[in-house]
Amino acid sequence: MGMKKRVVRLLPGFAVRMAVYAKRRVRYIRFGIDSLLHRRQMKVFCSCCNMRFRTFVSGGFDLQPNRYNPERYSQTRQDVLCPFCKSLPRHQILAMWCGEHLERLKGKKILYFAPEYGMKLWLKRNRIAVTTADLVRSADLKLDIQDTGLPDGSYDVVFCNHVLEHVDDFRKAFKEIHRILKPEGLLLCSFPMDPNIELLDEEEHVLTEKERNRRFGQIDHKRVFGMKADAFLAEAGFNVRTILGEDYPDEIVPAIGPADYDMNRLFQCEKSNDNGQRSS
Hints:
Oligomer: single chain
Low-confidence stretches: 275-280
Number of strands: 13
Helix content: 25-40%
Shape: globular
Structural class: alpha/beta
Number of helices: 6
Strand content: 15-25%
Mean pLDDT: 89
Order of helices and strands: HEEEEHEHEEEHEEHEHEE
């Protein structure tokens, strides 16, 4: 009887997962046929799901004022979302960079905080195994990025994109990532960056969702970083290089958008020792 009850409880969740999977398969086949029949019209390429489209699409973020500040979307491109895997320019750029540096990923122990669907597709296609981590959503590990409880030097590579604007103490999170990386470990990360801010705009006290939306662009953001925020990564012990969107093909649309803080740049961070040198 106990087993039967457990099966009944699991069925609704299984049915939802199967419905989502079936919907994605139908969309994949539809886009694939469209790409074959109209190849010359396929002007853009998604480096995450490896598909071509006539155009990318708008995510409609500027039409959701209760969650996103429309002013943040008024001066940037909105047609930057992959219609299949929903990846954005920063995800496309990351996938392109990873494709150029497979030797940094193949056979490595990788931890991915809050993985994006498009990047999960890319990793699966390239047969790169990762351990996923999230505090709220379903993942392999339920972890607080500020205090993971993992041993020192646990991973070769950590991915962390647009997570640090949500946590209470981003400096603590950077230090924690540095701690759990192995010597010469690699952090690939990005975060919202306001072009009008140098380092950081952060709440001095707890703000309401409405205040956060107005000030930081989204109701669950606790800060927005500035254009020189890579200094915080260096402060945590990383040697930092910037991955620039303009270094990648126009067909992936490596633009700034859809929000004005969705910069077309990411950071390649090498773990260094206390003297600021790469660990050996």
